[in-house]
Write a structure and sequence with these properties.
By secondary structure, the chain is an alpha+beta fold. The protein has eight helices and ten strands. It has one domain (about 15-360): Catalase HpII,  Chain A, domain 1, CATH 2.40.180.10.
Length: about 350
């Protein structure tokens, strides 16, 4: 896992600057992992449902017909995965055993508006669908942050409420998000990272993390808890900054992929027996064994409004035999929330011609 702690020569944020930054974190967090919903029915009497979660996201972000309710701005990518063979002893999944597996992916800006400036949030996301020869699929949604800010769907929903507009003013209460984090100490690792996180100049120079944990299962039924990361095999020069303009990420991606395939290494980090598997807000200690499972090769882009990724629901619990979800409650919540968002946006497909025209203006 990349160490994103504050460099020793960087002066600490002033109290006023930190409070101002915390007040804006709600917008960032609303985008980091998509729509969540608590599905176990224990949040009574006001049970949190997919509908309620998507509704609060629409309240905070607005409604943009035909687009995802979060991670709305993105671009499709096409490629394949080349297995290294190093994960074969841990998982029976074909993706780790066959030489190549086709992939349809999507880079995205974690924001609720498809028209958000690329520099508006410091987090990037990458979603992938691997389609195995036996027809089974592995879908994964990853983010450039190392941990999630909270560990439960209820807390995530409360954070969305904290950034909702006050009916009396039409604007969020600037004290609500800092107050939320003040009562959620588990957010400490995320806040430590976000203090120094900067918008990257390119989608292809980021490391993307699963954040949630999963299990690899081998042919003998043995299980190994893992988190995974897609690590770029090429990096920009140190000190590279994001260019000016609202839409530089897609332009940069198209230019880079036009010059040749882009490659990422899939690293699987193996948990020790006492590592927290069911809480995405907790990191694992450094020094854990890391396996190079293979290389993601991307060789084409497509517009998201009519590309292959448009109608894919990147549900993180769509898994092939040989990979299983953990008991992390955020995984079930993501699955339910993604489905609700998918149904809403696909019912709006008839409005996409008008959306395309609007985007050109």
């Amino acid at each position: 896992m990349v160490d994103r702690s504050t460099p020793p020569n960087r002066p600490p944020l002033s109290s006023a600057s930190l409070i101002a930054r915390l007040a804006g974190i709600g917008v960032i967090v609303a985008a980091v992992a998509g729509a969540f919903a608590y599905v176990n029915g224990t949040f009574d009497p006001q049970r949190l449902t997919p509908k309620k979660l998507i509704n609060v996201l629409e309240t905070n972000n607005g409604v943009h017909p035909g687009f995802r309710r979060n991670h709305s701005k993105g671009v499709c990518v096409i490629g394949h995965f080349e297995s290294s063979g190093e994960a074969r002893s841990y998982s029976s999944a074909q993706v780790f055993n066959d030489p190549q597996t086709p992939v349809v992916g999507r880079f995205a800006l974690p924001a609720g508006s498809p028209y958000a400036p690329d520099s508006s949030v410091p987090i990037r996301s990458l979603a992938l669908r691997f389609t195995q020869a036996n027809g089974q699929q592995w879908r994964t949604g990853m983010n450039s942050m190392p941990v999630f800010p909270v560990g439960t769907p209820e807390a995530f929903y409360q954070l969305q409420q904290a950034q909702s507009p006050d009916p009396a003013t039409g604007k969020p209460n600037p004290a609500a998000v800092p107050a939320f984090f003040g009562s959620h100490p588990e957010a400490g690792p995320f806040l430590a990272w976000i203090k120094t996180a900067k918008p990257s100049a390119s989608y292809v120079t980021e490391t993307y993390n699963s954040v949630n944990a999963f299990y690899l299962v081998n042919a003998a039924g043995q299980k190994q808890a893992v988190r995974w990361s897609m690590v770029p095999l090429a990096q920009d020069a140190a000190g590279a900054t994001a260019p000016e303009g609202a839409d530089f990420l897609e332009k940069d991606l198209v230019q880079r992929i036009g010059a040749g395939p882009l490659r990422f290494q899939l690293n699987l980090t193996l948990a020790n027996a006492d590592d927290p598997v069911n809480d995405a807000s907790k990191s694992w200690p450094a020094g854990r064994k890391v396996i190079n499972a293979g290389t993601l090769v991307l060789n084409a882009t497509q517009p998201q409004l009519d590309g292959e990724c448009r109608d894919i629901n990147y549900d993180p619990l769509v898994l092939p035999a040989g990979i299983e979800g953990s008991a992390d409650p955020l995984l079930a919540a993501r699955s339910a929330g993604y489905a609700s968002s998918y149904l809403r946006r696909t019912s709006e497909v008839s409005q996409l011609p008008a959306v395309k025209q609007e985007a050109k203006q």
